[in-house]
Amino acid sequence: MTNTETPPKSGLARLLPLAVIGAVALGGAWLLGDYLTFEALRDNREMLIAYRDAHYWAAVAAFMMIYVLIAGFSLPGATIATLAGGFLFGTFPGVLYNVGAATMGATIVFLAARWGLGEKLSAKMDASEGRIKAIKAGIDENQWSMLFIIRLVPLVPFFVANLIPALVGVSLWRYVVSTFVGIIPGGLVYTSVGAGLGEVFAQGETPNLGIIFEPHVLLPILGLAALSALPVALKYIRGKEAI
C-alpha cells in the first residue's frame, strides 16, 4: 500500500516566501528609492495624465499592479502611490483603486507569513498553557476588533499590521475584509490629498503628508478605533461582573 500523504514542508521551504519578500524589499529600497518619490511624480505628471486620458483602463490596471507589488513586497513609495492614485483618478474612484491594490498586496504578505510561521506558531500557542494560551484565546474571541484596531490606528506600521494576523491564526477572509474596510479612512485622506496635487504642483509646493495626524482627521479615525475596541471592553466588564 503506497503512502499518498504529502510530506511536510521543511523549515527552509516554509520561510522561502518571507525570504523572497525581504530580499525584494531590500533590493527595491536600494534600486527604486529615487524613482518612487514625490519629485518623480511631479516631473512625470504630464506624461502620466496623457497616458491615462488615452488608455484609461490600461492605466488603472498598470497602476494597481504596481501598487500591489509595492505593498506586497514592502517596497518604498506606498504613500506616493496612494497620492498618485488620487492625482490620476480623483478621490473617487481613486480611493477604490488604492484600497483594493493595497489589500491585495497586504494579502501577499499575510499568506507568506502564515505559510512560513503563522500556522506553526498558532498551533504552538493553542497547545501551550498559562498566560500564552490565555492571550491567544482572548485574541481569538475578539478577532474582528483586533483586526480593525491595528488597521485604524495610524501608529501601527502597515507591514506589522500584515504580519500580526498571520501569526495568530486569523482566517484569510476575515483578514481581507478587515484590511479593505480598515484602511479606507487613511486611504481616503491621502487619496484626497493626491487629488489636489495639481494645485500643489502649480504653486511649486509639497503636499502635507502629516495631515492624518491633524486633530480634525486623527480624532475621527481614533473614534472608529475606539468603537472597534468597544466589544472587547464590554466583554471585559461583563466578565468582571460575573466574578
Question: How is the secondary structure organized here?
Answer:
Blueprint: H1 11-31, H2 38-43, H3 45-54, H4 56-72, H5 78-89, H6 91-127, H7 131-141, H8 143-152, H9 158-167, H10 172-182, H11 184-195, H12 197-202, H13 215-242
Helix pairs in contact: 1-6, 3-4, 4-5, 4-6, 5-6, 5-11, 6-7, 6-9, 6-10, 6-11, 8-10, 8-13
Please, could you describe this protein's structure?
The chain is mainly α and 243 residues long. It has one domain (13-242). The protein has 13 helices and no strands. Helix 3 (45-54) packs across helix 4, helix 6 packs antiparallel against helix 10 (172-182) and helix 6 packs antiparallel against helix 11. The radius of gyration is 21 Å and the shape is globular. The termini are far apart.
Question: How would you concisely characterize the structure shown here?
Answer:
The chain is an all-alpha fold. It has one domain. The chain has helices at 11-31, 38-43, 45-54, 56-72, 78-89, 91-127, 131-141, 143-152, 158-167, 172-182, 184-195, 197-202, 215-242.
The number of domains is 1
Strand content: under 5%
Total strand segments: 0
- Overall pLDDT score: 80
Q: Which regions contain 5 or more consecutive residues with pLDDT less than 50?
A: none
What attributes does this structure have?
mainly alpha
